[in-house]
Structures are given as structure tokens and as C-alpha cells.
């Protein structure tokens, strides 16, 4: 820590802050990058250096990094009331208006909205609703949950078990029993020679059915999936007819479909919902992030009438629906989220993303000629660049080579912030991005790939 100036924000940070998803010991030596302001798709650190944000921070800064309009809404709501809960029948108009709006734009007919404070909370609450539903139906044995390998669904005790990434479980004694992981539908990496996308999807569905039969259909409560697989898989679109075939299996065995729209929702994929883009017909939808353009912490769970009927049945039996978080339905967060949805309508967000989609896919798709790139795929303004050691054999780099981290570091040097896994670069820029900025972002990524290739070839 001797290289950090005493009493500087960097030194104070390492002395007091434990950072999520950060190497705790190494951080004491390196210190933080402190970001101080933003404008449009650019975020600025405390030295004044500007970076293009290629990942919308954590997938969520859909309107960029500052908004006078949303700030005024937050101020006015805070000035009038500031806070009140929605427990025991209490309510507030922003929460009511927001729930009505979410039902109006839902991907399929939904009955009620349960407001929460984060994507993790939304998925955690949806998990409880799945168990609550089957208990109400007199089928408490339908408790096991199937998600997918390389999926990410949150960091609570329950949602980290939904998350299908073993590294996230290490050290915590997780996952708990009852959480199962279907194959990640990564066509590029895992398809057999001559196998079409549709044939691959059928193989995924057959494997899911085998898992269900092996475990016992009467023990499976729900299947959890983000329409385009985000965090762990790196913005991975499903292969052709994947969800059509998966949902046929789920219907056969009366298993609920939960769509995690925390990343995909609100225009990101070229439709209002990723479910619409990928053909998902969910019983429950979870959403967050772009719901408020990340300007306030808020999330929501949308449930269909079948699930709500079970909530009423259990309320009759138990006297109340006993679940909630103190800040759920917070009037300031709800007001900001509602205004965010108005902004999306005014800018015709879905049409904007659809218009930019071919430019986005073409600009980054051109990287397929790079020696480090095996494939590029995406929808809307969400896509992934597959990094490979051997293009002909589709072979990734050894994990210890940390190729993604190398690309990320070189991109930072070029003023571009990315989200990388071991062998994939995920792209999800703010939805206000322009055609010119897309082209510039792709050029900076190509430069980072060139720098990485030169480094590993040296």
C-alpha cells in the first residue's frame, strides 16, 4: 500500500471497503479505480480519463451515466414523502402506477407484480413463490429446481445455488441439495460435427428430459433460464428452437418456467423482453437493472394467474402472504423506474435497438477474421465474442492463461470497459449508443485483441 498516497480516496478505500467479486488481498496492493462522473456512454475516473462502457457497467446503465430528468423525479418524490413501505396493505401511487405499467407491457399475460430491490432479491422471491405454489397445490415434493450450467441468477444464499458456476460456490459450502444444472446450450463450442442448431437444441431437450426422469418428474418444481444467457456464459444466444423444445418437455411434466429477464428485459435484445426475442412463455418473470436504468435499486417479479391463485390459497390457509423486504415498493425507486419506462416509450427504445442491431452485429461480427476470435453472436444490443486458441478445432485457451483478463486489460488501456469470462467477451453497451459509437467501440476491441495476440505471441 506504500504506493497509495496517504489519505487519498484510494488509500481510504483499501483501508475500509470490501469489494464484491474482487481479490481481497491483491486489492490492498493495487487499490481501486475510482469513477467520479459519467455522460452518455462514457464513464470518467478521478483522473479525468474517459472510458467507453461496453457492458453498461453491470449490464444495467441503459440510459448512460447521468440523467437530470430522473434526478428531478427522485428529488420531487423524496421531497413529498421520501419513504413508506407496502407491507400489510399500505401502498403509494408510484408503486401502483409502476405495477400497472409492468402488467401492461409484460411478454405474456400476467396477474400481479411483486416489487423488490435487486435482481438477486427478485430471483430469490420467485424461488420462494415456486415452492409456495406447489405447497398450495398439495405437492410439496416438487421442490427441486433446474437451472443451467454457466448461468448466473444472483448472490443470495438461494440464488447463488441457482447460479450454475462452480467457482461461485467454492468456500461457501454450496450449492444446497435440490438444485440441478442442465447443459449450457453453447452451440458453437459443443455441437457435434454436422449437427445443426435445431438438432443440437433437440439434444439439449432430450438431455433435460433424461434428467427429469432420473430425478423424478414429481420432484421438479421449475426450470430457470435467462433468454440470452448472460453473466457466466457471456451474452450467449440460444440455438434455433431451443426454448420451443425445452418448454415442450416442461409442459409434459408440469414444471414451471421462470424467465430471468434481469439482464434481457427492457429493450436489450431488440424486443421489450428477451422472452419475446427467444420464444419463452414464462409462468414467472423476474426483472431489474434497466427497469430504472440503474438509477435506483429496484426489481420486480411478475406472476401469472395460476401462481397468484396459489398465493391467495395460502393466504387463506396461513393468514397472510408472509414475504417482503423493507424497501420493496420504495416510492422514490418506483417513481424513477416509471419515468424510465416513459423515456423508453418517448425514444421508441425497441425501434431504436432494432435499427442499431444490424450495425452492432456487423461491426462486431467483422472481428471473426481475427486470429483470436472463433465466433460472434447476439441479438439487439447484446452479444458475445468467443475467444479461441484454435479456430479450426474451436478449442479455447487453457484456463490458466486468463485470455479474457488479458483482453480486458488491453481494452482498458484503449479506453474501453468490457465484461469478460475466461474465453468470451460480453458486449451490452448503453442502449442510447449511436452508430458512430458502435463502430468506435468495435475498433477499440479489435485493437485490444491485436495487443493481446502480440502479447501471447511474444
From TrEMBL:
One of its GO terms (biological process) is gamma-aminobutyric acid metabolic process. Its cofactor is pyridoxal 5'-phosphate. InterPro entries: Aminotrans_3, Aminotrans_3_PPA_site, PyrdxlP-dep_Trfase, PyrdxlP-dep_Trfase_major, PyrdxlP-dep_Trfase_small. GO terms for molecular function: adenosylmethionine-8-amino-7-oxononanoate transaminase activity; pyridoxal phosphate binding. Coiled coil: none annotated. Keywords: Aminotransferase, Pyridoxal phosphate, Transferase. NCBIfam families: PRK06105.1. Belongs to the class-III pyridoxal-phosphate-dependent aminotransferase family. This is Aminotransferase class III-fold pyridoxal phosphate-dependent enzyme. The lineage of its organism: Bacteria, Pseudomonadati, Pseudomonadota, Alphaproteobacteria, Acetobacterales.
Amino acid at each position: 500500500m506504500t504506493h497509495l498516497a496517504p489519505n487519498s480516496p484510494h488509500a481510504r478505500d483499501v483501508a475500509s471497503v470490501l469489494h464484491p467479486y474482487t481479490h481481497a488481498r491483491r486489492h490492498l496492493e493495487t487499490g481501486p479505480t475510482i469513477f467520479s462522473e459519467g455522460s452518455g456512454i462514457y464513464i470518467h475516473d478521478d483522473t479525468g480519463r474517459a472510458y467507453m462502457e461496453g457492458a453498461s457497467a453491470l449490464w444495467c446503465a441503459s440510459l448512460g451515466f447521468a440523467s437530470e430528468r430522473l434526478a428531478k423525479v427522485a428529488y420531487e418524490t423524496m421531497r413529498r414523502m421520501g419513504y413508506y413501505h407496502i407491507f400489510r396493505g399500505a401502498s403509494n401511487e408510484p408503486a401502483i402506477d409502476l405495477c400497472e405499467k409492468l402488467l401492461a407491457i409484460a411478454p405474456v399475460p400476467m396477474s400481479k407484480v411483486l416489487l423488490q430491490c435487486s435482481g438477486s432479491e427478485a430471483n430469490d422471491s420467485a424461488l420462494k413463490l415456486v415452492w409456495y405454489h406447489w405447497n398450495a397445490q398439495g405437492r410439496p415434493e416438487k421442490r427441486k429446481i433446474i437451472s443451467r450450467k454457466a448461468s448466473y441468477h444472483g448472490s443470495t444464499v438461494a440464488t447463488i445455488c441457482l447460479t450454475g458456476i462452480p467457482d461461485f460456490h467454492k468456500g461457501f459450502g454450496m450449492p444446497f441439495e435440490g438444485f440441478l444444472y442442465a447443459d449450457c446450450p453453447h452451440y458453437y463450442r459443443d455441437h457435434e460435427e454436422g449437427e445443426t442448431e435445431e438438432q443440437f437444441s433437440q439434444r439439449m431437450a432430450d438431455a433435460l428430459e433424461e434428467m427429469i426422469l432420473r430425478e423424478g418428474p414429481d420432484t421438479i418444481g421449475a426450470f430457470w433460464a435467462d433468454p440470452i444467457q448472460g453473466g457466466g456464459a457471456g451474452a450467449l444466444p440460444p440455438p434455433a428452437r431451443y426454448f420451443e423444445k425445452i418448454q415442450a418437455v416442461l409442459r409434459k411434466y408440469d414444471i414451471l418456467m421462470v424467465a430471468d429477464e434481469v439482464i434481457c428485459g427492457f429493450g436489450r435484445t431488440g424486443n421489450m423482453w428477451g422472452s419475446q426475442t427467444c420464444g419463452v412463455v414464462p409462468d414467472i418473470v423476474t426483472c431489474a437493472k434497466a427497469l430504472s436504468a440503474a438509477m435506483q435499486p429496484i426489481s420486480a417479479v411478475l406472476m401469472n394467474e395460476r401462481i397468484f391463485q396459489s398465493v391467495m390459497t395460502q393466504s387463506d390457509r396461513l393468514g397472510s402472504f408472509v414475504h417482503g423486504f423493507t424497501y420493496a415498493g420504495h416510492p422514490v425507486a418506483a417513481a424513477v423506474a416509471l419515468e424510465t419506462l416513459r423515456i423508453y416509450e418517448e425514444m421508441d427504445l425497441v425501434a431504436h435497438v432494432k435499427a442499431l442491431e444490424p450495425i452492432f452485429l456487423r461491426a462486431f461480427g467483422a472481428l471473426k477474421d481475427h486470429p483470436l476470435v472463433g465466433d460472434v453472436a447476439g441479438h439487439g444490443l447484446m452479444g458475445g465474442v468467443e475467444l479461441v486458441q484454435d479456430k479450426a478445432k474451436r478449442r479455447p485457451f487453457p484456463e490458466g492463461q486468463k485470455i479474457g483478463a488479458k483482453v480486458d486489460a488491453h481494452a482498458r488501456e484503449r479506453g474501453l470497459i468490457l465484461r469478460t469470462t475466461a474465453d468470451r467477451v460480453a458486449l451490452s453497451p448503453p442502449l442510447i449508443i449511436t452508430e458512430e459509437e458502435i463502430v468506435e467501440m468495435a475498433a477499440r476491441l479489435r485493437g485490444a485483441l491485436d495487443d493481446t495476440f502480440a502479447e501471447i505471441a511474444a
